[in-house]
Amino acid sequence: MFGKAPIKLFSCRGSQHLAGMIADKLGIELGKSSVNEFSDGEFQPCFDESVRGCMVFIVQSTNPPAENLLELLLMIDAAKRASAYKVIAVIPYYGFARQDRKDRPRVSIGSKLTADLLSTAGVDRVITMDLHADQIQGFFNVPVDHLFGSSIFAPYIEKLHLPNLTVSAPDMGGSKRANAYSRYLQSEMVLCYKLRKKPNVVEEMSIIGEVEGRNIVIIDDMVDTAGTLVLAATMMKERGAESIRAFATHPILSGNAVERIHESVIEELVVSDSVPFKNTSDKIKVLSIADIFAKTIQAVTMNLSISTNFVF
Question: For residue 271, which of 9, 62, 251, 295 is within the disulfide window of CB 3.0 to 4.6 Å?
Answer without folding.
Answer: 251
